[in-house]
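Throughout our pipeline, every protein is held as a single compact record rather than as scattered files. This encoding replaces a full spatial description with a residue-level series of whole-number codes. The remainder of this section carries one protein's record, kept here as part of the documentation.
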Amino acid sequence: MKDLIINLLKSNENSFISGQKISEELGITRAAIWKYMNQIKEEGYEIVSVSRKGYMLINSPDLLTSNEIKNNLNTEFIGKNIIHFDSINSTNIKAKELAELGEIEGSIVISEEQTMGRGRLGRSWLSPKHTGIWISIILRPDMLPNKAAMITQVGAAAVATALKKLGITSYIKWPNDILVNGKKVCGILTEMSCELNQINYIIMGIGINVNQNPSDFPEELSNIATSIKIEEGKSFSRKLLLSQILNEFEVLYYEFVKNNNVKPSIHICKYNSILLGKEIKIINRGQLISVTALDIDDNGELIVEYPDGKIDKLISGEVSMHGLWNKS
């Protein structure tokens, strides 16, 4: 019922809508309306109420609910079904549970806060309330499991493109990190359930540090992690950024899954790569080895050259490039 009232307020934004009209359209009492209005105000909506005039919405909060995202969402199926939480342990964990129960493709689990956010290799991911974007997208692509790794790069390309459209320069650290000024602002964690020749579902988790302050990061992370707000010197609309990411992702994902064409995503990842042409370190059988990153091929594999001149391809893995953040 709250969502219906918010919709009515939004459709009459900057003008009053009477309690009588709300009562007639939604079939609820004036007392119920008053109760819901108080709940809506507690969520951060600024509402003016005037006797004999009714209620008027003045300002909407930067929440990641369907109501707040849909106006800027131009997708056909990605993000059309949003499962929103105020707080949750992990959006990926919840998305996997829902996927197992048959949740449709394109559904998204979003939380204002994660208490057990996870990155790659089981690392924790700080996810404080109302400061970032913590989402997991349920995907069911009709493709062989060996192609699933490229979904991560489709996601990275979408995030980098969305940031660019908001005037934010970012770089992609193959295969799943987005950096601004050499520090990580976004990580992508892709998990899959599959059989030998069939993908049951893919969960693509995206965590983005948007409006955190320096004090939100522990000292041990201050040199490697940051937020867009810290680097750009101003706050950003989380709901606008999320809508833009989903719009970009659907276009690139559709091209990959339906047209078997991942080249647009790979082109974006190559153009915005922070690694290519640089000496990097990779973990190989537990050892840290220096190699030169040469290229990203059409399958999304990182082509590297070893000190002895040997050329190899990496499907995935840990990459370190301490101190080398500039693209040039």
